[in-house]
Amino acid sequence: ADDGGTVNFTGGGSGLLKHINTNGVAYIVNCAGATNGLVTCVSGRSFAVADAGLPVRHVVAECYNDWPTGLVDNVSIAGWKTSISHMIKIRAAQGHRHNGTLSLTQATGFTLRNSGNTAVVMISPDYVVCHVQLEGLCLYSSSSASPVVTTSQHSSMRECVVRGGSAGLETNVRVESDVVNCVFYDQAQRGIGIDIDAGKNLNVFNSTFCGSPYGIYRMRSDMSSVLNVANCLMKCSTAGIVSIGAVSVNYTATSDATADDFGGAGNRINQTFKFMNEAADDFHLAADDMGAKDRGSSAVMVLADVDGDNRMDGLPDIGADESPGSVQPGVDAYGIPDAWKIQYFGSASATNAGALIDADGDGMCNLSEFIAGTCPTNATSRFQVLALRSEGGGGEAGFSVTFQTVTGRLYTARYCDNLLAGSWGVLAPSNAAGTGGQMTITDTNKPAIRFYRLGVKMQ
């Protein structure tokens, strides 16, 4: 009842309650006046502000899979100037995403499908839409129209399952774009997973292509862009990759002989893949697969798979799915000991003890809490940066990152000067052993702009 209504702060200010998600988090925007003290809603309910928030970086259309008879609707976004760092995101809400498969009878997650011979999603300058990211969606075309067509600036697809159409994705992007952790299958009309007509560089990482003649197809002779393919699985009836121009292919496996046509490292040709249930369009890797399991490269920093499962058991798998390792007695499929679950949840089979469940709502699932050595039932216990500090003066001074450590864990800080290029370096010391206290890692050679991330793993 309070969603969309005005709220008042005891300090005298006001704001607008835009949305309350399934985790009970309220977002207040358009704040004016003194925004301190309790917040009171129209209904009389009140709550305290836990986080002052950050400037809006993205406009998000969040999709919920709770329309059993379907929904025809639209979202209007006006007055928003996009850029690579200010994107429009169309994403399925947490808890409403697919499980890596697309079902037409009972959708496993929020599904977009077309009506007639039109694209499911059209991203085009004609509609003044640029810098768009699709995340966690099922996209289905029952006609010859491609599910996704983009001719705009910088488009991104992540964790999407794409079925049908002449090509799963038709792209003519004008700024470097990416496809990560996506599944393309049954593109029966023209038989192409991704059809590249023109445009700038395209990165295709950790994606699976099945049930179509071609995986990736690029045959324009006037293209100066680079196609970057890494950790991709292609089970195609004619050819996994057909391309002219600059192509970089690494740690990619194909059922034909095209994976190594372009040089590169770690590629595998003429492979046989084993899926959980290919006949039912379930392209999760089977535990005993020999063609793609543990054959990928961790140099491509994709930390989770199409389902959100961590790629943490040694070398990552090739393709969109990370198959759980063999299960040991007293340990679940993700490597979490039953004893750990019993310690925090009272039972190894407790409903909130699942590996991918965020029991305390702090943004880290139980698996991530186990790896980081944090408490899964305490929202204040999470792996996070405690302090960022510029060392000395000037735009190119050193930069330090401080964080809390746990014994039995190894920590690595990485840096990147260009997020679109996707190449991450390692700051020394790498794999620093946790002490139980705070640790600071300093970048002594920082340029004017640099991005950082922290990683933790079991010792």
As laid out across the biggest beta sheet, the strand order is 6-7-10-13-16-19-22-25
Quaternary arrangement of the chains shown? single chain
Overall outline:
globular
Please give the share of residues in helix. Answer: under 10%
Q: What is the alpha-carbon Rg in Å?
A: 23 Å
Description of the structure:
The chain is mostly beta strands and 459 residues long. The chain has four domains: 42 residues, no CATH class; 266 residues, no CATH class; 56 residues, no CATH class; 74 residues, Sandwich (Immunoglobulin-like), CATH 2.60.40. The protein contains two helices and 35 strands. The longest helix has 8 residues. It is globular.
List its salient traits.
3% helix; 8-stranded parallel β-sheet; 35 strands; 33% strand; mainly beta; 7-stranded parallel β-sheet; 2 helices; 4 domains; 459 residues
SSE topology:
Layout lengths: L5 E4 L4 E7 L5 E7 L6 E2 L5 E2 L11 E5 L24 E5 L18 E3 L7 E3 L8 E4 L2 E4 L6 E3 L4 E4 L2 E4 L2 E5 L5 E4 L2 E3 L6 E5 L5 E4 L2 E3 L3 E5 L7 E5 L2 E3 L3 E5 L2 E5 L2 E2 L20 E3 L4 E4 L52 H8 L20 H7 L12 E7 L6 E7 L4 E8 L8 E2 L5 E2 L4 E6 L7 E8 L1
Parallel strand pairs: 6-7, 7-10, 8-11, 9-12, 10-13, 11-14, 12-15, 13-16, 14-17, 15-18, 16-19, 17-20, 18-21, 19-22, 20-23, 21-24, 22-25, 23-26
Antiparallel strand pairs: 1-2, 1-4, 2-3, 4-5, 27-28, 29-30, 30-34, 31-32, 31-33, 31-35
